[in-house]
Specification:
The protein is an alpha+beta fold. About 30% of the residues lie in helices and about 30% in strands.
């Protein structure tokens, strides 16, 4: 029996990733797959065979084979696929085991699973998300990918030449790698740092107002962020940052996300921009209120 489980890397246009980074990440990915397989069935023997890659992104298409036929093997194979995939989705709250199962497998394939299979799969996936299963190899994958800025996101797919449903953006790599640790302030509260590229939706430009909650579009959706960067806020209000009003303004900023533990899941409650690192200037986007530029004409010098 065999299935395909692939590590999908999205890349910057026209760029290629570092060979060593990809090789070490692939090795750690294989290690994670084998650990998850062992947890599901200690007696199962698996093999990952390199298949191919795709252009403009890098998809390490691995053929996942079970080498011995065993009872309940179908459930083990699907469990390995889902357990691996759940370690490479951006927002686990919106991608439950059932949703991933529906996304990766057909109705006929799902109907082959017994109640016992479903329990084993759910338990294993929970172990992966809680860091009890395959934590070290998954962290190794993110640690390697974080070394190469060419890689913009990562995910897992089961069909070659497809894209992952919810890839993890590179701003999350340091946290997923364990390089940046969430700071837990109480048993039910923690602060998770990250660096994100955001698109401005609506600012609040009232200099004396305590309400500095701006709306931004992030890789995870549209959210409110409190501006804690005093230099950026003051400069924007006074006009010294030259943040000209136009569509598609983007910034890269350091974020602190305040999360609370609810029902065993960390839920974001507040997002604070602690430092604006870059204001991205796009020549393609025009000022909404600017006057059209007059063409320059050469003037003849008087003799």
């Amino acid at each position: 029996m065999q299935e395909t489980i692939s590590l999908y890397l999205d890349l910057k246009p026209g760029e290629k990733p570092d060979f060593e980074v990809v090789g070490l990440a692939a090795a750690a990915f294989a290690e994670a797959v084998k650990e998850i397989a062992f947890i599901l069935d200690p007696g199962v023997e698996v093999r990952l065979e390199f298949d191919s890659t795709t252009e403009n992104s890098l998809s390490l298409n691995a053929i996942f084979k079970t080498l011995k036929s065993r009872d309940g093997q179908r459930g083990t194979v699907i469990g390995v696929i889902l357990g691996t995939s759940i370690g490479f989705v951006s927002d686990i709250r919106t991608w439950s085991v059932g949703k991933l199962l529906d996304h990766h497998f057909s109705i006929e394939q799902r109907q082959q699973l017994s109640e016992e299979d479903l329990k084993r799969i759910a338990s294993t996936c929970k172990g992966v998300t809680e860091g009890r299963i395959a934590k070290t190899p998954i962290q190794k994958v993110y640690k390697q990918l974080d070394r190469d800025s060419t890689i913009t996101s990562v995910g897992a797919v089961t069909k070659p030449n497809t894209k992952p449903p919810a890839p993890v953006p590179n701003s999350e790599f340091p946290t997923r790698a364990g390089i940046l640790q969430p700071v837990q302030t109480s048993p039910t509260d923690r602060t998770r740092p990250s660096t994100e590229r955001l698109t401005l939706v609506s600012p609040v430009l009232l200099p004396d107002s305590p309400n500095r909650v701006w709306r931004f579009l992030s890789p995870f959706g549209e959210f409110s962020y409190t501006i804690k960067d005093e230099k950026f806020f003051t400069g924007t209000v006074k006009g010294s940052t030259h943040l000209t009003l136009k569509a598609g303004i983007q910034i890269t900023a350091k974020i602190n996300t305040i999360e609370q533990l609810e029902g065993g899941v960390w839920i974001p409650k507040q997002r604070h921009i602690t430092k604006v690192v870059i204001i991205h200037r796009s020549k393609k986007q025009s000022d909404l209120f600017s006057q059209p530029k007059k063409s320059k004409t050469s003037k003849k010098k008087k003799r």
